[in-house]
Amino acid sequence: MEIYGVFQVIWWLLLGVLLVGLAVMVGMDMGVGTILRYVGRTDLERRVALNIIGPHWEGNQVWFVLGGGAVFAAFPLIYATAFSGFYVVMLLLLWSMILRPLGFEYRSKLPSAGWRSMWDWALFVSGLLPMVVFGAAFGNLFKGVPFHFSWNLTSTYTGSFLFLLNPFAILCGLLSLSLSAFMGSVTVMNGAEGAIYERGRTMARVSSALAIVLFAVGGFWVHGMQGYVLTSGPGAGVPQTPMQQVVTLTDGAWFANFHAHGLLWLLPALGFAGMLLGLLAAGARRSHLAWWLGALAWLGVIGTAGVALFPFLLPSSSVPAQSLTVWNSSSSQLTLTWMVGFAVVFVPLILWYTSWAFYVMRGKVSAEHVAADEHSY
């Protein structure tokens, strides 16, 4: 493989790392928002849950920036095509993300029960909706996205918003939501005591069991689905564009990479192991271990999806031959080279700082402390 191809694969892998980071860190915060009204039955209990993630939720949003920036710089054709096609979805995400900081900052500013309840529901929506959309986006990749290109590589989206909510996409959205709720539940267990802790433990077991079922059903569904196969592409020395390739649809094609390379089955096994062992760890009150097992489950699930789709990044259901792949949608070799250098420096730095922040602000959040601190959420 030429050095350019090596950098393309490296950035495919790095994009996967960033997506896992987003799912784990942002999904944890949004999971707490999703289960907020269950684990917190009183205003003070909900404030405890919010203050558990209070020191971290803003910093965790950096994974959104990293993910979007990586797609924009490493795979600009994916960025342009997906963002224009999913415009309504992007607006929904934007509005829900705007609700999050408003909910955190404004919720406890007034003593009114109605005021606080309104912001509790806002945090619920802003936690649930993005994680459902995150999973549904992966589901739509397996089904193919209705777009095509004109002669000058201008993309045209031919689907509708309701098309994105097909049954398989909804299943993937529920899987994403379940894993997010699990991460939120064990995070609550890590930081709470008493009744809040017990409700978080119950929700962790329920959400992990649901995730196991959904992941298994999704696997059988994909096995019976038609997948995309890159039959041929542009020859050597020819510009790699989606206008000069042949793509066919074949039953069970999404499992081809697993059949060709047996070690890749470790990824779905990792997903199931993380969910099952996470369920057992939560039941045994090993919440910190359960958190890491939840992160392992996310790695297995996203890794399974990425390997199944490879080399496709955005398959086209309108004109399969114009599907976008790792090979025909990436930036230049120079751009990818510079980006690898920046990633080598900044990704470990972000991981170190995040770990340090969690270590410094570890420990339980008590209701008494929250009630006595006028600066708490």
Give the topology.
Elements: H1 3-34, H2 36-39, H3 43-53, H4 57-60, H5 62-74, H6 76-85, H7 87-106, H8 113-143, E1 147-149, E2 155-157, H9 167-191, H10 194-223, E3 226-232, E4 246-251, H11 256-260, H12 266-283, H13 287-309, E5 312-314, E6 324-325, H14 333-360, H15 367-372
Antiparallel strand pairs: 1-2, 3-4, 5-6
Can you give a write-up of this model?
Helix 1 runs antiparallel to helix 5 (62-74) and helix 8 (113-143) packs across helix 9 (167-191). This protein starts with a helix and ends in a 5-residue tail after the last helix. The chain has one domain. It has a two-stranded antiparallel sheet with strand order 1-2. A two-stranded antiparallel sheet has the order 3-4. By secondary structure, the protein is mainly alpha-helical. The protein has helices spanning 3-34, 36-39, 43-53, 57-60, 62-74, 76-85, 87-106, 113-143, 167-191, 194-223, 256-260, 266-283, 287-309, 333-360, 367-372; strands at 147-149, 155-157, 226-232, 246-251, 312-314, 324-325. 42% of the residues are buried.
